[in-house]
Predict the structure.
Amino acid sequence: MVIREGYASLERGYIYLWTLFAVALAGVTLAAVGPMWQIESQRQKEVELLFVGDQFRRAIESYYNHSTGKAKRYPESLEQLLEDRSTLVIKRHLRKVFYDPMTNSLEWGLIEQPETGITGIYSQSPKVPIKRANFPEQYSAFSEAKSYKDWKFVHAAESTTDTGKQRSPSPQSGTSGTASTNPFSGNPASSGANPFSQNQNQSPASGANPFSRGSATE
């Protein structure tokens, strides 16, 4: 009887030691995987920011091209991209005001021209980007960015100047329109020309995110 109790105590001791070993091993594994997961998560957010920012740029360009009068104009707010009433026929240049994936908010930094309107947007995240190469030509300056605030998505007609004023608004959540759907959803739709395409004169058949890391090495 005493021998059996001794074996039982010894067995419980082994189980206790193995449990401690398993917990320690799990902690070491999580400590190693945690930073890798954070880096991968940031990379995915960069892909989304590139897509969303490009959608804003395209919408601003569309608003500019469809403006009437002698002088072309830009929107005075991001909400005007959702419902452009400057003409008799209401036009929707953007499906919705997207969230900033880096800050998870609707507060975008705005680039403005005096008496002209909003010419571009940028994230207000102070984080340092991971991606440093393989940007399309219109975003080549991103390779030297010190933070995501330097990733400025500006209409091409104004991108060569640096006279625009910047402000940080608090836009309201947009409503659905007719622009391209978010490629991060399960069933993406067409989103226009692919700025990462090897032949930029052609348009893709689907709306897959052109900024996906699968198309180029960072």
Notes: Residues 127 and 183 are 24 Å apart (CA to CA).
